[in-house]
Design brief:
This protein is mainly alpha-helical. Helix content is 64%, strand content 6%. A two-stranded antiparallel ribbon has the order 1-2.
Length: 159
């Protein structure tokens, strides 16, 4: 990580509390919001996200999918299991005997379309609660933070 800079002159600009804790609290609350909306479609928000990526990316090797989602391979395998069990995703043979492909089934594409309506409602409801401008600023800030942290990690910084 970059070296810490001098403290800002304004006390209001000094962070209070633990950034990690605050982010985890926000993620949990937002996750519960989306999970509640997605329950009507029979999916958790994380399952919807994974299914959406598989549908959008088409047949894809598990390693490529894990890299796109920034997940460990073991986490991806664990998260795919319920989707495979429901028949929404299949693991098919790849180009050679050692490779496999993750593929959305027709049932998976239909489930994603059904769940997309619930996701859209959750998105609109969250925008209404927080305000669209605030959500847009949050997205911009998150993108900036992800870029900065990603550049730091690429340069050999801590995870």
């Amino acid at each position: 990580m970059p070296k810490p800079t001098a403290r800002p002159a304004s006390p209001a600009a000094v962070p209070r509390g633990c950034t990690h804790l605050k982010l985890r609290q926000l993620v949990r609350r937002v996750g519960r919001h989306y999970d509640a909306a997605m329950a009507a479609a029979g999916l958790k928000a994380t399952q919807y996200s994974l299914l959406s990526h598989v549908v959008q990316l088409g047949p894809i090797r598990p390693g490529e999918l894990a890299a796109r989602l920034q997940l460990e391979a073991s986490t991806l395998t664990r998260n795919l299991q319920p989707l495979v069990a429901q028949g929404w995703v299949e693991l098919r043979p790849g180009e050679d005997a050692r490779s496999r492909l993750v593929v959305a089934t027709d049932a998976g594409r239909a489930k994603r379309a059904e769940a997309q309506r619930a996701w859209k409602q959750a998105q609109l409801a969250l925008n209404a609660v927080l305000g669209e401008e605030r959500v847009a600023r949050l997205h911009a800030l998150l993108d900036e933070c992800l870029e900065r942290l990603g550049a730091d990690q690429a340069a050999g910084g801590a995870d």
